[in-house]
Amino acid sequence: MCGINGFYSQSSSKFNNVIEKMNQALSHRGPDNTGIWLDRNSGIVLGHQRLSILDLSSAGDQPMQSNSGRHIITYNGEIYNHLELRSDLERSNSTIKWQGNSDTETLLEAVDYWGIETVLKKIDGMFAFGIWDQKKRSLILARDRIGEKPIYFGWQGNGNNKTFLFSSELKALKIHPEFYGEINRDAISLQLRHNCIPAPHTIYKNIYKLLPGYYLELREDNLKEGFLPQSKIYWSLSERATYGNNKKFLNNEEEIKNNLENQLQLSVKKQMISDVPIGAFLSGGIDSSTIVALMQLQSNHPIKTFTIGFSEDDYSEAEYAKKIAKHLGTDHTELYITPKMATDVIPKLPTIYDEPFSDSSQIPTFLVSQLAKQQVKVSLSGDGGDELFGGYNRYTMSKKFWKIFRLMPLSLRKILKSRIHSISPKNWNKISYLLPGSDQYANFGDKMHKGANTLEADNLLDLYYVLCSHWQNPSEVVINSKEPGTLLTKFRPDLTSLNDQQQMMVLDFLTYLPDDILVKVDRSAMASSLETRAPFLDHKLIEYVFKIPQSLKFRNGSGKWILRKILNQYIPKNMTERPKMGFALPLDAWLRGPLRDWAEDLLDEKKLNHEGYFISEIVKRKWLEHLSGKRNWQSDLWDVLMFQAWLRENH
Q1: What does pLDDT average to over the chain?
Q2: Can you give 190-234 as a three-state secondary structure string?
Q3: Would you say 207 and 170 are in contact if contact means Cβ atoms under 8 Å apart?
Q4: Residues 6+ apart with CB under 8 A from 118
Q5: For 334, how many CA atoms within 13 A lie in the half-sphere containing its CB?
Q6: How far is CA 51 from CA 87, 236, 526, in A?
Q7: Considering only CA atoms, which of 252, 571, 241 is closest in space to residue 388?
Q8: Which DSSP string do the residues of 128-142 spell out, in sequence order?
Q9: CB–CB of 74/48 below 8 Å?
Q10: Any catalytic annotation for residue 468?
């Protein structure tokens, strides 16, 4: 894993000095080596910070130039099928001379021989890269199909100083003297709704994220004119999902399960290839347990596994993870987080994430990455399993809710919503203890309050959108903002051939996964110079799973049925069958306790009014209600707090 940088400028006087500083800003992503390449005549500068994983020798250093001299690349990622591509290239081009064994060189020579469009369709992996084509005089930026690796880009400056910038992280762009960084108020509204800023938007005007499965080519005349062409798609998840649904497997259940297990084993095997120590995150849930079980199956020594726990039992899965690790025979390490540990991480968050990001599981994710880095350089995770196999509660709960809601007049639903919100989450939790099977209702009060917001939905997908939202009307609290359209609203893909549950899963795959989950994991891990890999996100595995009938994913009122069947061959059912908890913090209690002074300082009314981003009265009301225990506003408040902390650090 690495950090990439680059820019185009007609003003070449500070090329070396600027790119060196931009590289330094990304040293955490690649502490093993730094490199630059520039062409003063073309105005192109490329930078790179290397984290050595495959071919640890200097033959893998970047930026790297192809044998022909035509292409120069700065690349971040792993190409898992690079050895197969090498063989194909050798058969097609007998004169090729390899300088080393890195996947970077394979990718570069493949582009040199086949061209960018063919190569993007051939490669299997996670990546973001920039390539300068000296023959066509064009700059190409590309991002992997699912969005595991980040790339930011955009024009800054004016006149002769107008500069095109790109990088793995915003912190490097901010080094460039032409970066002016005007805050995008509309993006703040998006952050308050989704706890992240969805691609292609960023917190800064005229700076964008490249969408997953897309590439962008700027020809020399584009660069000279300061023009930004449309990016091009080379792989569409929504199209693959629709195609898979139309080509469902007709095999029997056992055959589909066995084939799926083989596909999973293959994906895990590919992603275990490394020239450095490798391990895995183990939460104790179905997804990470499956990945670890298949890793241990294919390893002749105990796999190193890592987990985070909390002293608050309602939030901790560490004990479950420990039992699973013991059963599988892994070399397990765990860390129990204290409020002090969380408090120590919080000041680092604005620097780690570069733009406001408020998924509170960012804290344990950073801490488990730090923990893993002490022993390994690469860690596999179970990310993507929920979106692929239907693991989120909203997929089943929304369907149940809508069956009831559509029978009730809207006026009655509004009254019911008000009544539910009149009871605090704490008291709802007490009520849940009186219900049959009370151990099934984790965080019952929070779920009741969030569920109540869906009572005003017009249809099932509107209901899903409410469940995906923190602030329901963020533009009402962010001053002078208008919420932009996203893939969940104005730019929703055509998924009409899929049923409602399938549409929700695809939309999560397109939005929540790359914009929240993968951002959280990439930035947290890279801040510790740790590479992460997600076997569930192998695009061939994804295309296979899209063909599996829905009845094999959802059964008996829950998702992941077929994945559970595979996992139960390795781990007893009673070790993994329990309510989904996620990687959550006891944030509600911490905001009333050890984090209270920090939060009150950031939410000070005078400060909010002076800064002019939020209507302070609305924020203050939620803060006071939270402190009193009347409501649990932890998510809404964390959204504001993470913006405030970012603003303090960056402006």
Answers
A1: 92
A2: HHHHHCCCCCCCCCECCEEECCCCEEEEEEHHHHHHCCCCCCEEC
A3: yes
A4: none
A5: 20
A6: 25, 30, 10
A7: 241
A8: EEEEEETTTTEEEEE
A9: yes
A10: no
CB 287 within 8 A of CB 383: yes
In 10 A of CB 331, how many CB atoms?
Answer: 13
Gyration radius of the chain's alpha carbons: 25
Which residue out of 2, 196, 548, 647 is catalytically annotated?
Answer: 2
Within 8 A by CB and 6+ apart from 89, the residues are: 96, 106, 109, 110, 113
Reported confidence tier of residue 581, pLDDT bands at 50, 70, 90 = low
Structure tokens at 598: 């920090």
Question: Any residues with CB less than 8 A from the CB of 384 and at least 6 apart, and which?
Answer: 146, 287, 513, 534, 536, 537, 542
Q: Do residues 449 and 472 touch, judged by C-beta distance below 8 A? A: no
CA atoms within 13 A on the CB side of 461: 16
Contact (Cβ atoms closer than 8 angstroms) between residue 213 and residue 35: no
Per-residue pLDDT band for 49 (boundaries 50, 70, 90) equals very high
Share of the chain above pLDDT 90, in %: 73
Distance from C-alpha of 370 to C-alpha of 530, rounded to nearest angstrom: 8
Those residues whose C-beta lies under 8 Å from the C-beta of residue 320, and which sit 6 or more positions away, are 284, 575, 576, 578
Distance from C-alpha of 97 to C-alpha of 56, rounded to nearest angstrom = 19
Could you tell me which residues are beta bridge partners of residue 49? 3, 34
Residue 496 pLDDT more than 80?
yes
- Indicate the SS3 state at residue 305: strand
Q: Phi-psi category of 353—alpha, beta or left, where left has phi over 0 and alpha has psi -120 to 50?
A: alpha
By CB neighbour count within 10 A (0-12 exposed, 13-18 middle, 19+ buried), where does 254 fall?
exposed
CA distance 543 to 246: 12
